[in-house]
Description:
Layout: E1 12-15, H1 16-19, E2 20-24, E3 41-44, E4 61-63, E5 81-84, E6 92-94, E7 103-104, E8 108-113, H2 120-128, H3 130-138, H4 150-154, E9 157-160, H5 163-202
Amino acid sequence: MRVDDPFAVHGxxxxxxxxxxxxxxxxxxxxxxxxxxxxxxxxxxxxxxxxHHTVDTRRLRRVPQSRAERLSRFALREGxxxxxxxxxxxxxxxxxxxxxxxxxxxxxxxxxxxxDLVLPAYLVSYLSHPPxxxxxxxxxxxxxxxxxxxxxxxxxxxxxxxxxRQRSVVETLADLDARIRIQRQMADRLEALRPAIFGExxxxxxxx
Length: 208
């Protein structure tokens, strides 16, 4: 797979399969009869991955503890990445400490960075980079439901700058995301005030 990345000059190209262990989710038969209740081990599915690369825990389903041992090879660790491989392609999440030991569904792929060449947070940002996203979606398998497989992901070339540059990228983007959240919160508050302001203006009350 070719990715026309304008930042390649700042690092070396390394195939994703040389940076990460790529593991498909368990077969559907291993995840039969998931429970919506509070007991058992949570299983992360594509619907739980947000556009901000986090895990939404509000609708998690669970596998009974008695069956968890059969799924132990699919347990997550902090720093893993989950990538949707079937359906809503392009969604992914960075696994945090609170998600460790949870499982993931059959429609996801787990990327587990190996060694010290790449920071997980940098890798999430890279794989979310629009040219990379377009390349991934362009290579998806045709069908009623578009899909990716482990072999495709392993072949994805990744631009890997030195670790200090990766850290700089991660910190700068985190700061930018924080500013975006603040601006959105301000916009939401103004939107909530709009009806009250309109009412005061109609009544002739000066709004200050």
